[in-house]
Amino acid sequence: MTLSVSDLNRIARETLETSFPPLWVRGELSNVTHAPSGHIYFTLKDAGAQVRCTLWRSRAQRLSISLRAGMQVELRAQVTLYEPRGDYQLSVESVREAGVGHLFDAFVRLKAKLEAEGLFANDKKRSPPHYPRGVAIISSPQAAALKDVCASFARRAPHLKLVLLPTPVQGDGAGARIAAALDRLARIAPVKGLDVVVLVRGGGSIEDLWAFNEEVVARAIRRCALPVISGVGHETDFTIADFAADLRATTPTAAAELASAGFYAAPDLLDRRHIAMQRAMQRRLNTLQQQTDRIALRLTHPRQRLADSRAAVTALARRMRMAMASHTQTLARQNMHLGARLNALRPTPACYRPAIDALQNALQRNIRRQLSQRRTQLDALAAHLDHLNPEAVLSRGYSITRDEHGHILRDAAATATNRDITVQLHRGKLSARVIQQQPAIDSD
């Protein structure tokens, strides 16, 4: 098979872009050109080699530094090929000055260490289930990324069970908390029916994302009982967690889309295949019909052609009437179905009347019983009050004696001889004078 130059360059470009994921490259800038279109073209070189680079306007506008010749930079870029000229080049996504500090060096060292151990090996990666029963989400409850993830699941697969394992995603101790949440899944996943976990956080600086660059998180991801999808930061952010995860998403929302991809794509897949079959059949029928029509036009008499045209119009009219009748019947069935549902949901007060009557009778019986109990209590209290009434005591022959000041006398020594006293009987009072005192005699 002989290829054209265009085909050769296209295949070479696709091979380069497939074989090389976006990567970081360090070097010195030269031949920096700012095009009127807003794109930036330059060469990245070191002591032994150089490569052409292109920074498109959409990404150049987000640069926080000004590019100039002689700068030492680190580029995140996609290896590609410019097909019209066959030039091998880098499509730059982001640029930063070389030597960003100890964090990046620590990131590189840890990545190299874990990669040497085989922790990132593709043969250890697990494929998330196409149709999971439930999804565990590890993120901060206050994270904006969590809202985006939940909204994506609600839109694409609202039936999916979502279980949040709240953890801090930034600050001291966040890495250990994330690792602990991943380890918890071995215990709760079978109980809650979870099949996949998404680890999400919004974008930020390398310091903000550092919890996901800790070794304890990477090892917890690999020993996690469920496949892990990482959605940390923006598209250009890479963390150790991304390399350790079974699947890396460019954003938190993309992580939710990957976890729900099977459910979301199933209806569209069926519809597309159905439509594709219909279109293929229709195209085939149309092609054959056109061929037949062309042959018929060369062979038939004009009178016959007119008759055929009338027959075709008649057939189309018949098909249109049948289609309209079918559509009308469908609408009528839908109307009947909706009417039946409406009638089923219509309230029927009469069916609640027996229950209301029963409640009313029970209420009346309860009121009568309560009134009877209260009358009985009232009679008992009245009898008790009568028993304590001093008038009732006087009726049994007792009396109340008061001194001249009206004070009740309880002891004979409380008054003196020749003093006036008053004796109150059950009926009436007596006035008397003390002529003799007889003090009480102690019983002991």
Average pLDDT level: 86
Task: Tell me the structural class.
Answer: alpha/beta
Strand order of the largest sheet: 1-2-3-5-4
Determine the number of helices (DSSP H or I, runs of at least 4 residues).
Answer: 12
Estimated share of beta-strand residues = 15-25%
Rg, Cα atoms, Å: 48 Å
Shape type: elongated
CATH topology of the largest domain: Rossmann fold
Describe the oligomeric state of these chains in a short phrase.
single chain
| Helical content band | 40-55%
Number of strands: 13
Largest sheet: 5 strands, mixed, barrel
Helices and strands in order, then pairings?
Blueprint: H1 5-19, E1 23-34, E2 40-45, E3 50-55, H2 57-60, E4 72-82, E5 87-97, H3 102-117, E6 134-139, H4 144-156, E7 161-166, H5 174-192, E8 196-201, H6 215-223, E9 228-232, H7 240-244, E10 247-248, H8 252-259, H9 261-299, H10 302-345, H11 353-388, H12 390-394, E11 400-402, E12 420-424, E13 429-433
Parallel strand pairs: 3-5, 6-7, 6-8, 8-9, 9-10
Antiparallel strand pairs: 1-2, 1-4, 2-3, 4-5, 11-12, 12-13
Helix pairs in contact: 4-8, 5-6
